[in-house]
Amino acid sequence: MTYESPWMTDDLRHLREMTGTFLAKEAEPHHERWSEQHAVDREFWNKTGELGLLCISCPQEYGGGGGTFAHEAVVIEELARIVEDGFAYGVHSTIVAHYVNGYASHEQKQRWLPKLASGEYVGAIAMTEPGTGSDLQAIRTTARRDGDHYVINGAKTFISNGTHCDLLIIVARTGDAPGGKGLSLIVAETKDLAGFERGRVLSKIGQHSQDTRELAFTDMRVPVTNLIGTSEGLGFVQLMQQLPQERLAIAVGAVAAAERAVEVTIAYAKERTAFGKDLMSFQNTRFVLAECATETLALRTFVDHCIGEHVAGRLDAATASMAKYLATDKQCQIIDRCLQVFGGYGYMTEYPIARMYAGARVQKIYGGTNEIMKELISRSL
After folding, report:
1. Mean pLDDT, contiguous 10-residue spans, the chain (381 residues)
2. Which member of 78, 84, 246, 259 is catalytic?
3. Residue 306 CB: number of other CB atoms within 10 A?
4. Is residue 212 part of a domain?
5. Which helix (H) or strand (E) holds 266?
6. Active site residue 263
7. In 3D, which of 287, 372, 301 has the Cα closest to residue 330?
8. 260 and 177 in a common domain
9. Which domain holds residue 182?
10. Are 110 and 145 in the same domain?
């Protein structure tokens, strides 16, 4: 069965081939070591930037690739194919760079985007706090103006790229207005920044090669010129406008991971023998894989539809939430069923299916829990 996404072009096919070759050489052989050190090598970011994969959908004027979200999707898919879910490409390129590109001034874009595109800077965004979870309106980190600086105090947790980040977008409360009305986005360039502290590296069920940390700010001074947007208090609106792209990116990774799981399980079932026959000879195995392949293809067509809508500027928040919730739920279900075909070997981390299983679970949590996605969808009904 052959299927190609309707948004695919010759340019994107070339990008897929180039990205796959690069990752097979520069990432896949290092997965175990990266997992042990809880971070990809810092130099890998530079190599990815040199190839032109970082900020690939940002304007060329600011060092980006001048592409669309479809270019981002290809890179995300290729990372899923080699089961490298620790390289937080999506956080850097698909999320952080687009807050800068979408809301920063021309001068700010000139300062930051070329460094993000080259890999000189690694980007992260500090939203989640201990006790807030998906409730962004409950953020307590404060940024009080003192002359030409903001004095920032607070703590963040579950921050991807927390170890390597050179540019950090902080969601902070700049005013006394309740809920989301008092929130702003402020950029901190972290090198030698007094009051900035990288806390403990968090031990996770999966995605071990991702540098996920706690961060703390104690009287940390950041120039007021690092505010993103024309005025204070725009942060919540900015977050709501960008979250659909983040959620679609999660869905893209989810369906690609499900596809890869089905692919490796079919190959295993044809090679592995039991009771004198290969596993594919058993009707149960064939039916399980037939169901998984069918659900994955159906999911792929929906996510492809969303990609096409987003590239055309028509994707709404509710549909993006649908894609995120459905894709990640199905990712977990399909990978679980595929793992069962592997038997005991499916529980061994030397097999990619085990890493897929462990890495999939958080997909239903970050980017807004799937329960929050259903709430957002329901508001549009």
Report:
1. 91 98 97 96 98 98 98 98 95 97 98 98 96 82 97 97 97 90 97 97 95 97 98 95 95 98 98 94 97 98 98 96 98 98 96 97 95 96 96
2. 246
3. 25
4. yes
5. helix 235-271
6. no
7. 301
8. no
9. 124-233
10. no
Distance, in Å, from the CA atom of 143 to the CA atom of 213, rounded to the nearest integer, reads: 21
The Cα–Cα gap between 366 and 380 comes to 22
Helices (H), the chain: 10-26, 31-37, 42-51, 69-81, 89, 97-103, 106-118, 235-271, 283-311, 317-342, 352-360, 370-379
Of residues 120, 125, 86, the one with CA closest to residue 253: 86
User: Which residues fall within 8 angstroms of residue 353, CB to CB, at 6 or more apart?
Assistant: 261, 264, 265, 268, 335, 338, 339, 342, 346
CATH number of 142's domain: 2.40.110.10
Number of domains in the chain: 3
Closest CA to 100 of 71, 121, 86: 121
Distance separating alpha carbons of residues 162 and 49, to the nearest angstrom = 19
Q: Do 241 and 371 share a structural domain?
A: yes
Whole-angstrom distance, CA of residue 31 vs CA of residue 39: 10
What are residue 358's DSSP bridge partners?
A: none
CB 93 within 8 A of CB 56: yes
Strand locations in 133-258, DSSP E? 142-146, 149-159, 167-173, 183-189, 196-201, 213-223, 227-228
Return d(Cα 74, Cα 276) in angstroms, integer: 41
Residue that finishes a domain, picked among 103, 121, 139:
121
The first and second tokens of residue 212, run together, are 């996920």
Instruction: Look up residue 373 and give its two tokens.
Output: 């996605």
Exposure on the CB side of residue 297, measured as CA atoms within 13 A: 11
Tokens of 239: 């977050």
